[in-house]
Write a structure and sequence with these properties.
The complex is a heterodimer of chains A (about 200) and B (about 425). With about 200 residues, chain A is α+β, with helices and mostly antiparallel strands. Chain A has 10 helices and 5 strands, in the order ααααααββαβααββα. The chains are: A alpha+beta (about 200), B alpha/beta (about 425).
Chain lengths: ~200, ~425
């Protein structure tokens, strides 16, 4: 029954998800908890990837039900690119030292961007400030432009591996016009292993 | 898997339910931490991954069975045994009194704070979490008003972290006591070291601020410099009647040595704290399993970056370890994640360097993994639990939870969970 309902309402579900995508991080997080509490909804969402192959734009609430095997590549194709002149550039330095530049939408968090573009940044608690797996190191010039981290973010940063003066949690940095050109480095906790094995 | 896309991964679990510590070790009022379960869903949906639950390694399945069908094994069974204090009456059967007003927790880690917070928390709030109904029922009938959390060393040696401390300080209607003299003294004498250690500095700031929370009908306190010496039961000459705890006798300590290696030295003085309810929360240790080397002192499997070493420090081909079994029972999700990455990278680099695995023919496709093991298990009369089976159990838990306005109502016993699969 659910699957028939879904087939008929695919469009409205997708437009709903796009609507959330454009909302700020906190609203997405709020929806996230709302869905969790309202388990009736959860069943519906849960069934989507199984019953039909809809490719979703990556929003936090739906993202968690992606299939491991098909997730990131599809999302990469599906993401709505920013309109001419409206995007903001963000540079990632991966643990391997590779530089990736992405034209992102204002209002997206670093967590959204990495998940949408298949950049390896674990976000285990999905932006709910319960872990430090999305730890990134921000270019000092841009670090000062960011809003001060909250106590809750700092609590988690205290537990991050290799904390620096300009460390932040990726899920808490939301792209703005004045952050255009920001560079963030994804630290590697295991780089030492690699170097050792190579030598 | 990125490097070797044809790799198959099978995960054996003793319980019929995956998630381990995230399900059983994360406090019920921290649902956001449990979000990591959703990431597991992604892994489980990969066709190269198989979950095989309800299989006890060492009983149902031996190392020999596994060696014949796999190239490498990663052990990651955590730390399930509690550490012991080694004190008088610790193993005597003395009952706790749940109606007790004062509650003593021995140990100052995050688990100690989690337990204390659950006890002092508003019961209505608590009933909206996934806390099990039988635990909730006990707590409903016996509200505890005072919690005393005792540690053998000083405020700079606590092992709890900022989030948990902040939650304790912010508990409504709950005041906080601590030895403010000792705290101020420790802070001022070690100010240089503290200012360089960001997590410690922030933790101490929260503690200092907390001292001004002096109103409320409930209370909690941090007591320092106390080592438990003896559990004391109520006088009772009748051996047929259960003994109930009356107090804990503590040895009073002083601190010695440099800050990075502070030790608690007994002063010889004793102190009794009256209580009807005592909880030990001084950490865990892993247990040795069949066929694995084991370090009894550290309670872990000896390893170098995840590769298992025998007692003479020789690498054991094809045997790896991850998680608490690898580095001991501490650390948060990020710590565990990093060490799992480390183990995975060591496995990949071992394959690249053609190091021997469980057998010499790593790239020979004759090994079938769970395809061959599951029939053996069935022959032995074991009802293995697949990921689809777990989803059925989960659905039942969610249903039961919905009726009570909770995220889920967890099965408390393995038999109950297994019964879902029989119907």
């Amino acid at each position: 029954m659910f699957s028939r309902y879904l087939q008929q309402n695919t469009k409205s579900i997708i437009s709903l998800s796009n609507y959330f995508l454009n909302k700020r991080q906190q609203q997405i997080m709020h929806m996230n908890t709302l869905f969790k509490q309202n388990s009736g909804n959860k069943v519906i969402w849960n069934n989507i990837p199984k019953t039909m192959e809809i490719k979703f734009t990556p929003i936090t609430t739906l993202d968690q039900f992606r299939k491991f095997s098909n997730s990131k590549v599809h999302c990469h194709k599906e993401i709505t690119p920013p309109k001419e002149g409206e995007g903001v550039k963000i540079n990632f330095i991966t643990p391997e030292g590779e530089k990736i530049t992405i034209d992102s939408n204002i209002g997206d968090s670093i967590m959204d961007i990495t998940q949408a573009h298949g950049i390896d940044l674990e976000c285990a608690c999905e932006g709910s400030l319960a872990c430090s797996t999305c730890h990134v190191i921000v270019d000092p010039e841009y670090y000062d432009k960011l809003d001060e981290p909250t106590d809750e973010e700092n609590d988690m940063l205290d537990l991050a591996w290799g904390l620096t003066e300009t460390s932040r949690l990726g899920c808490q940095i939301v792209m703005r016009k004045d952050l255009d050109g920001i560079t963030v480095t994804i630290p590697s906790a295991t780089r030492n292993v690699r170097l050792e094995e190579l030598s | 898997m990125k490097e070797y896309p044809s790799t198959l991964v099978d995960m054996y679990e003793a319980l019929p339910i995956p998630f381990g510590l995230v399900r059983y070790g994360v406090a019920p009022d921290h649902p956001e931490v449990k979000n990591v379960q959703n990431r597991f869903e992604e892994v489980a949906n990969d066709s190269r991954y198989t979950f095989i639950g309800n299989v006890k390694y060492g009983e149902d399945l031996t190392l020999k069975d596994l060696k014949s069908q796999y190239d490498a094994i990663v052990f990651s069974y955590g730390a399930s045994q509690e550490k012991s204090l080694g004190i008088k009456n610790e193993n005597e059967y003395i009952k706790n009194i749940f109606s007790a007003r004062a509650f003593v927790v021995i140990g100052q880690g995050n688990v100690a704070l989690d337990v204390s917070r659950i006890l002092l928390m508003d019961i209505v709030e608590l009933s909206k979490t996934d806390i099990t109904e039988y635990a909730l029922e006990k707590l409903r009938n016996n509200r505890i008003k005072n919690v005393i959390i005792v540690g053998r060393r000083g405020p700079l040696q606590v092992s709890f972290t900022a989030k948990e401390l902040r939650e304790m300080i912010n508990l409504p209607n709950t005041k906080f006591h601590t030895d403010s003299e000792l705290l101020k003294n420790e802070l001022s004498t070690n100010i240089e070291i503290i200012s360089k250690d960001r997590p410690l500095k922030r933790l101490m700031q929260i503690l200092e601020k907390g001292m001004y929370h002096t109103s409320g009908y409930k209370s909690w306190s941090l007591k320092f410099l106390r080592s438990p010496h003896e559990f004391i039961a109520h006088e009772n000459d009748d051996p047929s009647r259960p003994k109930y705890v009356r107090a804990v006798r503590f040895q009073i300590n002083r601190l010695e040595g440099p800050l990075e290696n502070r030790v608690a030295v007994p002063t010889g003085e004793m102190e009794e704290i009256e209580t009807g309810l005592v909880l030990k929360s001084v950490g865990y240790r892993s247990i040795p399993l069949e066929g694995l080397p084991f370090d009894e002192n550290k309670g872990i499997v000896p390893n170098y970056k995840g590769k298992i070493l025998d007692n003479d420090n020789n690498e054991q081909p094809g045997l790896y370890v991850a998680g608490w079994l690898k580095r001991g029972p501490q650390g948060v999700i990020a710590t565990t994640m990093n060490d799992a990455y480390e183990t995975a990278e060591v496995i990949v680099s071992d394959i690249k360097q053609n190091k021997s695995m469980l057998s010499t023919d790593t790239f020979n496709a004759t090994k079938q993994g769970s395809k061959a093991i599951i029939p053996i298990l069935h022959q032995r009369g074991i009802r293995t639990v697949s990921y689809e089976d777990w989803k059925k159990i989960e659905e039942r838990e969610n249903e039961a939870g919905r009726a009570k306005n909770k995220p889920r109502e967890k099965f408390g016993r393995v038999e109950d969970a297994m019964r879902v699969l029989d119907t």
